[in-house]
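Example 9 (inverse folding). The structure is encoded as follows.
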């Protein structure tokens, strides 16, 4: 009887904590925390499924996919290039695989031009990415969005080659409650990946 009470207490604690620690004992709670995410040595985010059952996974199976943290745009451009659309495909696959995930989408520009123009340009970029996700089957309610324009540049006072980093739409995976997923990075080995900025570069 005491063993039964202890087991019941563990199940109650596990449900309040939200995540299961032992697959065989708490498999029914795995849907509350379906993924682990980490940053690779090149700065890409990998998302690994830890759920048993549901989302097309079988017990004990784990899948790893790449999460692209941002897509980039040419100077004064809002359409997605083919290369940037391909980057979004991996995010789309993750969102389809884990239907409880949400995504934060934030759009930015560089500082060239007026603030009001840049706000409109950021909105157009945002709409391109959101429409791409929606066309891929992601419901509107799973997408949290904001166009920030020239606010929050990554590289302030950048030259022409660096400025492209500010012309971006950032995508962050969120859990079912809308909280950013915890990401772990190997900072000592980060960097070194190839980046080809979309044209035009000005």
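The amino acid assigned to each position is listed next.
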């Amino acid at each position: 009887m005491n063993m039964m009470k202890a087991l019941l207490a563990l199940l109650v604690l596990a449900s309040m904590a939200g995540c299961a620690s032992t697959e065989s004992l708490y498999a029914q709670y795995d849907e509350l925390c379906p993924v682990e995410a980490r940053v690779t040595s090149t700065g890409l985010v990998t998302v690994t499924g830890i759920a048993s059952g549901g989302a097309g996974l079988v017990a004990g199976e784990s899948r790893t996919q790449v999460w692209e943290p941002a897509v980039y745009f040419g100077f004064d451009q809002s359409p997605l290039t083919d290369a940037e659309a391909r980057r979004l495909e991996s995010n789309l696959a993750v969102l389809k695989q884990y239907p409880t995930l949400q995504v934060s989408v934030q759009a930015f520009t560089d500082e060239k031009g007026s603030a009001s123009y840049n706000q409109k340009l950021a909105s157009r970029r945002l709409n391109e990415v959101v429409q791409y996700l929606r066309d891929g089957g992601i419901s509107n309610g799973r997408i949290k969005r904001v166009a920030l324009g020239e606010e929050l540049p990554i590289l302030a006072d950048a030259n022409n080659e660096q400025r492209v980093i500010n012309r971006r739409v950032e995508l962050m995976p969120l859990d079912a409650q809308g909280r950013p997923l915890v990401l772990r990075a190997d900072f000592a080995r980060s960097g070194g990946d190839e980046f080809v900025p979309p044209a035009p570069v000005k």
